[in-house]
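note to self: dont lose this again. the chain is below, predicted strucutre after it. 264 aa total, dont forget to put it in the shared folder this time
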Amino acid sequence: MRRKVIKGLGFAATGLALGSGISAAAPRRDVKASATAVPDAAPWRPSATHGHVEVTWSVDTSQKLVALTFDDGPMPKWTPMVLDVLDAERVKATFFMVGERLVRNARLVHGRMDRHEAGNHTWGHADLAQLSHQDVCRQIHRAHAAIATITGREPLHLRPPYGRLGGATLSAAGQLGYDITIWSIKMLEKTYRHDPPRLVDYIVENTTPGTIVLAHDTGEPDRLVALRNLVPMIRGLRAEGFEFVTVSELMAASAPLVTRPITP
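---
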């Protein structure tokens, strides 16, 4: 199946079902937090009732739909350039925004997000796997407020920086009512920085119905090889019959999950 979802993940009332050994305590300062660590001091009792977290990296659908996503902005130069291309090509996309950058650069997206969707990429692009439950909640909640205020729409999807799901990321997402969206294919800018046509071919040839594509609208200079070749990628995918949709639209087109009985 092309819909890849981790559902439930042992969450009970938005917390990991590990008994009462979950808390919002910060990790010990003398031990580096593990990518799979969970808070482990006092009982943790969530205030929300979001009973599970879904982690989606692609969607099971027979329709030739693809979601183009951009992380880490908005930032000057690159974000306007991406929006210009998307406007010219009449393409929808989802921007996973860093709250602090959005506040500083709100003018870059004013009046330009009507066809697009904004997702939550935390307040300061922190590695959530290394933070306490409380600090993860603060990162998500502060970005949520900024995105809702500036774009006029509340974000529905969380993408943790670096795609890391460890630590308190899942418990905080559950408490705040978020599901998590990562990706199924990403731009390989470093691999193809000197061969842009091959990058275009890589994306076009490896996109299938329900794919979520990861790009960035800020960062290292080599990422420009992808942004400067968005037009041939878009046109190449359209020539293959693909339609560009937001992440929420892609989720809405998902086929129902089929539950298979367990054979003893």
